[in-house]
Q: What sequence folds into this?
């Protein structure tokens, strides 16, 4: 609309102009001003839906990710045209629209990145990606020692984690997620089977064949696929609640049967010694029955899982007084510092949390502890919790980041933040992994 | 009235005591014998008389001299050690049952009554049990009862024994006195990764005992472990990404109130894919009982001496923090030594709080990690302990005592399970 007004405004002026050259020049100015005044063109839902085919799952999920930002009615109408062989993607798309509707303004935005780098130093390209995405990665360990050769990287409007994955491959650096922080290490580069969607990168970390014999009760053979969920900062994800569904097939289309894991529940009257949710893992375990002999890979593994996004959180930040006995409380919890100190570049904070309500209910809540050093970022800590009758004592350890180590920065502890997520939304994420070796 | 009863009791005991005294005196001549075998037999005879022989023996020791005195003192020490041993390991409980078509819940209650051991049993299924046992051990009786019913199974968790509604499992097991050793499961795990295949084979079991006794440590070792395809599962693999000791011994200090200890064995050699059973599964569990401890250190008012270093033999102890919340006392204690092995053997149970009424309360807890430091004398290792003690009402912390075992009894429970089926 604004562009149309700009064009009609200048047309009357052009009538006064004489001479073809001037007219051509003026025409160019008009065209440029019209382009500049326009909003970025909105992708067409139908064109994006056309990119959804089983032949290219990466492109299909990229399209689903983009469609999630468009009006739901347009997308639903376009999705109806998807053929039957794309039913999985149609379901994934419709499920994502439900997530958008459920989370509303809290639906995580994604950072998209374009890179056009030719023969540039990896460190500079990474800095460019991080600058454009406003995301953080601890790369201190990746660029130590002798300098790396320049690399070239061409990326056009891809999600941050897709950019990071492509960068790692080109620069031969290894991407890992530790306690929710993204870390880069030297060596490696190819992450193996992965799935990338909006704020998430799912990386298969291990494939394990297990033969378990319970004496007197028979044997069970399992093929366990384990994957780590890497998240960008915008995802707001603190853990994986559960695997919702999984379907694996070999290259002849034969299905791998699922093999539910044996879980033994502790008796209800036993209070655990360790807090079970002191630190939720960002991992996914997919148990299957091992294939017949001769099947050497899972050609396609499709499924969904629920990620946890906090919706109500008690936050306690201790910054000025980190002495033992310093207390804070809210309506739900009382928190006391037992100790907080940095020794040999390792910060340890011990916090006692006393729930004002039921201890068992508290033990089901995800708890995070983050620590900030003087010159370093606020960073999640390794956390464990010991349960006493009325309180849980959390020990949190924050190690120096690679950058802090490299630069020899003083990392005296400056603040400790405890987060108790009292309620979480479950956000279903659909995924598809290809070519997972099982033999 | 009480005096009359006491006198009657003394009269009743007197002949017995004098009998024992007479027996001790009878052995004295044999102890003096120049025939060494005869002298040794006499000492053994005295030891077999047990605790009643202590007082008469002390009288005879006071009168004796030379080798005779030496031998009698050895007999006295052995009797006293046997008392400590029995206290630590417990007198074997024997159960005699004659259950005739009794509901399983009643049968479990009857076993609990006959053994004097609490057994948790909730929501047990229908079905009656007929079982006759003569002087079976507690664990034999419990297992036999569950096996006879078929729809219930026993379980040991923490300090409790329970019988639950689930199918009976006939696990490979071995009974000895108040102990049961059983193998729970085995697993073979193969990691599939690009260009790198490696695996772990493990056997997990448990050692359980009865409340009131407490082994300090146990370890599992296999002499023979082989599947029916001839794969020796204790065989060293060549090369590989990581290595697990072939001795495969795993052990841990027992939690104070728990009545079981997990046992685990791991190795890198995997059974054959087509194997259907363990053809050989032979080995032993070595169990250590602490019979005697010695107090090496007593720190008075430990809450007021934070950070101070107290020497205790080869180690030094420093109380870093002490907090009292109601009846709960929590401590942070550092134990430092240049002798690494010595630090390794220090356990939370080596500490106890002595209250203001003089009662001792053993600490529970765990080691929170270690740190090391180099100085002019070399490397020292510090183990950081988090300890907790619950005191009775109305008392305060008087001191923190640090004790170490000075006499340990080691017993070996062998097992030999043949043809253990996988399915």
A:
């Amino acid at each position: 609309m604004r562009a149309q007004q700009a064009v009609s405004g200048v047309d009357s002026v052009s009538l006064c102009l004489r001479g073809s050259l001037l007219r051509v020049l003026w025409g160019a100015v008009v065209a440029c001003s019209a382009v500049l005044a326009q909003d970025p063109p909105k992708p067409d839902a139908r064109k994006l839906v056309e990119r959804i085919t089983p032949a290219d799952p990466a492109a299909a999920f990229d399209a689903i990710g983009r469609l999630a930002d468009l009006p739901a009615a347009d997308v639903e109408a376009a999705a109806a045209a998807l053929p039957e062989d794309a039913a999985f993607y149609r379901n994934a798309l419709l499920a994502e629209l439900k997530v958008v509707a459920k989370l509303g303004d809290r639906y995580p935005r994604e950072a998209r990145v374009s890179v056009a780098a030719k023969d540039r130093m990896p460190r500079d390209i990474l800095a460019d990606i991080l600058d454009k995405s406003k995301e953080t990665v601890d790369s201190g360990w990746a660029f130590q020692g002798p300098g790396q050769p320049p690399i070239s990287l061409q990326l056009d409007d891809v999600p941050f984690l897709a950019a990071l994955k492509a960068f790692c491959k080109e620069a031969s650096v290894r991407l890992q997620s530790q306690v929710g922080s993204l870390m880069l290490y030297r060596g490696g580069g190819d992450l193996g089977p992965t799935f990338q969607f909006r704020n998430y990168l799912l990386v298969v970390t291990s494939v394990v064949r297990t033969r378990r014999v319970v004496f007197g009760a028979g044997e069970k053979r399992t093929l366990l696929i384990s994957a780590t969920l890497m998240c960008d900062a915008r995802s707001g994800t603190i853990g994986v609640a559960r695997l919702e569904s999984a379907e694996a097939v070999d290259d002849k289309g034969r299905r791998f049967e699922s093999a539910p894991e044996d879980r033994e529940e502790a008796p209800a009257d036993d209070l655990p010694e360790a807090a079970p949710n002191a630190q939720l893992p960002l991992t996914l375990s997919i148990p299957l029955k091992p294939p017949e002999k001769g099947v050497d890979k899972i050609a396609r593994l499709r499924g969904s899982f629920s990620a946890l996004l906090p919706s109500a959180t008690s936050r306690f930040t201790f910054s000025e007084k980190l002495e033992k006995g310093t207390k804070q409380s809210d309506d739900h919890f009382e928190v006391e510092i037992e100790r907080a100190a940095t020794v040999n570049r390792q910060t340890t904070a011990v916090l006692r949390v006393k729930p004002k309500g039921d201890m068992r209910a508290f033990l089901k809540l995800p708890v995070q502890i983050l620590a900030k050093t003087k010159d370093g970022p606020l960073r999640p800590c390794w956390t464990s919790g010991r349960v006493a009758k009325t309180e849980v004592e959390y020990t949190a350890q924050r190690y120096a980041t690679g950058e802090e180590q490299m630069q020899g920065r003083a990392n005296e502890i400056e603040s400790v933040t405890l987060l108790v997520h009292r309620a979480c939304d479950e956000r279903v994420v659909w995924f598809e992994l290809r070519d997972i070796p099982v033999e | 009235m009480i005096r009359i009863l006491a006198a009657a009791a003394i009269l009743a005991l007197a002949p017995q005591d004098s009998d024992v005294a007479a027996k001790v005196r009878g052995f004295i001549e044999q102890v003096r014998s120049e025939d060494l075998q005869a002298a040794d037999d006499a000492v053994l005879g005295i030891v077999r008389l047990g605790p009643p022989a202590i007082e008469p023996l002390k009288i005879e020791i006071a009168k004796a001299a030379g080798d005779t005195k030496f031998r009698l003192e050895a007999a006295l020490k052995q009797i006293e050690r046997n008392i400590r041993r029995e206290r630590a390991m417990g007198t074997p409980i024997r159960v005699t049952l004659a259950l005739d078509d009794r509901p399983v819940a009643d049968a479990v209650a009857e076993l609990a009554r006959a053994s004097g051991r609490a057994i948790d049993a909730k929501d047990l299924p229908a079905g009656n049990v007929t079982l006759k046992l003569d002087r079976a051990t507690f664990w034999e009786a419990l297992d036999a009862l569950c096996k006879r019913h078929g729809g219930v199974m026993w379980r040991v968790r923490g300090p409790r024994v329970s019988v639950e509604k689930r199918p009976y499992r006939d696990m490979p097991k071995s009974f000895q006195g108040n102990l049961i050793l059983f193998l729970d499961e085995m697993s073979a795990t193969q990691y599939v990764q690009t260009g790198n295949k490696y695996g772990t084979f493990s056997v997990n079991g448990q050692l359980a005992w009865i409340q009131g006794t407490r082994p300090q440590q146990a370890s599992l070792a296999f002499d023979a472990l082989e599947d029916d395809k001839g794969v020796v599962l204790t065989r060293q693999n060549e090369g590989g990404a990581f290595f697990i000791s072939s001795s495969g011994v795993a052990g841990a200090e027992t939690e104070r109130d728990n009545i079981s200890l997990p046992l685990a064995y791991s190795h890198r050699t995997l059974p054959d894919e087509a194997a259907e059973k363990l053809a050989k599964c032979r080995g032993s569990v070595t169990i250590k009982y602490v019979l005697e401890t010695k107090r090496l250190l007593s720190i008075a008012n430990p809450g007021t001496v934070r950070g101070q270093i107290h020497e205790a033999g080869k180690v030094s102890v420093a109380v870093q923090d002490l907090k009292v919340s109601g009846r709960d006392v929590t401590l942070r204690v550092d134990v430092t030594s240049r002798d690494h092995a010595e630090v390794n053997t220090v356990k939370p149970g080596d500490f106890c709080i002595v209250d203001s009424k003089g009662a001792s309360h053993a600490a529970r807890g765990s080691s929170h990690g270690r740190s090391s430091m180099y100085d002019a004398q070399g490397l020292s290792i510090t183990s950081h302990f988090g300890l907790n003690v619950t005191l009775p009402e109305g008392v305060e912390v008087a001191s923190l005592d640090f004790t170490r075992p000075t006499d340990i009894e080691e017993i070996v429970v062998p097992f030999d399970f043949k043809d253990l089926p996988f399915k």
